[in-house]
């Protein structure tokens, strides 16, 4: 069974945008793939994430995920 929270995503502070909710989800997935919280990461944004990332808080959302 799929949880409502799996569909809606995390509760977030900041702009309501796929650039924050989606980025947070990507951060959560990356942490799960890495097997925990890494000491360091390098994040490179592409496309619309790169164009509007800082203004939408994408970088903070990825780290928050």
Descriptive overview:
The chain has 65 residues and is mainly alpha-helical. Helix content is 60%, strand content 0%. It contains four helices and no strands. The protein has helices spanning 4-8, 18-34, 47-56, 58-64. Helix 2 (18-34) runs parallel beside helix 4 (58-64). The two termini are 23 Å apart. The mean pLDDT is 80.
**SSE string, helices as H and strands as E:** HHHH
Number of continuous helical runs: 4
Secondary structure tally: strands = 0
- What is the rounded distance between the termini? 23 Å
> Helix- and strand-based class?
mainly alpha
Which geometry do the CA atoms define?
Answer: flat
Radius of gyration: 12 Å
Q: Quick check: average pLDDT? A: 80
Low-confidence stretches: none
Binned strand content: under 5%
Brief descriptors of the model:
65 residues; mainly alpha; 4 helices; 60% helix
Would you spell out the secondary-structure blueprint of this structure?
Blueprint: H1 4-8, H2 18-34, H3 47-56, H4 58-64
Helix pairs in contact: 2-4
Short description:
This protein is an all-alpha fold. It is built from 4 helices and no strands.
């Amino acid at each position: 069974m799929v949880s409502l929270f799996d569909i809606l995503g995390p509760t977030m502070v900041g702009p309501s945008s796929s650039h924050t909710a989606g980025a947070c989800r990507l951060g959560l997935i990356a942490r799960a793939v890495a097997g925990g919280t890494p000491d360091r990461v390098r994040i490179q944004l592409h496309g619309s994430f790169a164009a509007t990332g800082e203004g939408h808080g994408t970088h903070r959302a990825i780290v928050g995920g």
